[in-house]
Amino acid sequence: MKNNHFENHVENNDVYYYDEEHSFDLLMIEYVGEEKFEEWFESIEEKERTRTAFKEYFNISGEKMNEILGTTK
Q1: Cα separation of 48 and 52, whole Å?
Q2: Would you say the pTM of this structure is higher than 0.90?
Q3: DSSP, res 32
Q4: Which range marks the domain in which residue 49 is found?
Q5: Which candidate in 10, 38, 46, 48 could, as Cys together with 19 as Cys, close a disulfide (CB 3.0–4.6 Å)?
Q6: Element (H, E) at 12
Q7: pLDDT surpasses 60 at 10
Q8: Domain membership flag for residue 4
Q9: How far is residue 26 CA from its own chain's centroid?
Q10: DSSP letter for each residue of 47-67
């Protein structure tokens, strides 16, 4: 994969914070397929590349996302 989409951090005064909403875990990418993910990712503006937009585009519920990531809430 040419881009490292699943490790996105926000810089703030030389301190880096993990930004989950703008990060894409490899499990998410594998679930939809790398090619489809890349098509979606490259087709929208950077500020629109969010987990919320990802879930909406690929029609993934919050419950399904938790299954994909192996998390529960």
Answers
A1: 9
A2: no
A3: H
A4: 9-69
A5: 10
A6: strand 9-12
A7: no
A8: no
A9: 8
A10: GG--HHHHHHHTT--HHHHHH
